[in-house]
Design goal:
The chain has about 200 residues and is an alpha+beta fold. The protein has helices spanning about 1-15, 70-75, 75-85, 115-125, 185-200; strands at about 25-30, 45-50, 50-55, 90-100, 105, 130-135, 140-145, 145-150, 155-160, 165-170, 175-185. A seven-stranded antiparallel beta sheet has the order 1-9-6-11-4-3-2, with helices on both faces. Strands 5-10-7-8 form a four-stranded antiparallel beta sheet, with no helix packed on it.
Length: about 200
């Protein structure tokens, strides 16, 4: 019933609204092949706030360019190759596998512009640029700007605003998401967003 209402309201939005500027988006499903990983190989090393997580990049300082860990290269080489092939980054600063422990309250991801002014400016002027991959969990638990999102069955990748989008996740214990952050390649990113918007316009917020 909920899904029917969602599609009906999305259809009405298409009928009565003009095309949205891509930079105004706060949530967009990404038109890329579905990502899968072997969950048996995930070893969570840290607890932070709402999540357990494991880093797939070496930590070289907050928001610093980094490279893949030995653990990632040994266990998640296909994921590494996928990210480097399909996602529009010039370089990466953080890739981690998050498992949700509880309800995630409203927050914005990148809130420290002084920690890396160049990266913050790059992200701010290429929004939405917060790439996330939903490996396990329900497709309708994420809220952006207090609006419920729905991820279509044909992709498990989405983008949210990294510097400007307040978002939360309802309780979805064991939800596993891959968090990807880096310096955006504007040309590749814009093309990917446009292609994704053309396909998934009715899901966008």
């Amino acid at each position: 019933m909920y899904i029917f209402i969602f599609y009906f309201l999305s259809y009405l939005k298409l009928l009565f609204s003009k095309d949205m500027n891509l930079t105004d988006l706060h949530f967009i499903p990404i038109d890329l092949p579905i990502v899968k990983i072997n969950l048996e190989k995930v070893k969570y090393e840290c607890n932070y706030s709402y999540w357990q997580f494991t880093r797939l990049l070496n930590f070289k300082g907050k928001y610093a360019e980094s490279n893949w860990t030995k653990y990632a290269l040994q266990n998640f080489l296909d994921l590494k190759n996928y990210i480097e092939k399909y996602l529009p980054f010039d370089y990466l600063v953080n890739v981690k596998i998050n498992m949700q422990n509880t309800e995630v309250l409203n927050h914005v991801d990148f809130t420290e512009p002084n920690a890396n002014p160049f990266l913050y400016t790059n992200n701010k002027y290429n929004e939405p640029c917060g790439y996330r991959i939903l490996i396990k969990g329900k497709s309708d638990k994420l809220f952006v700007k207090n609006k419920r999102t729905l991820l279509p069955e044909t992709t498990n990748i989405y983008c949210i605003g990294h510097t400007n989008t307040i978002h939360k996740v309802e309780e979805d214990i064991g939800r596993i998401t891959i968090f990807v952050h880096g310096c955006i390649n504007k040309y590749k990113h814009t093309n990917l967003l446009q292609k994704s918007y053309n396909k998934y316009k009715k899901y966008c917020i």
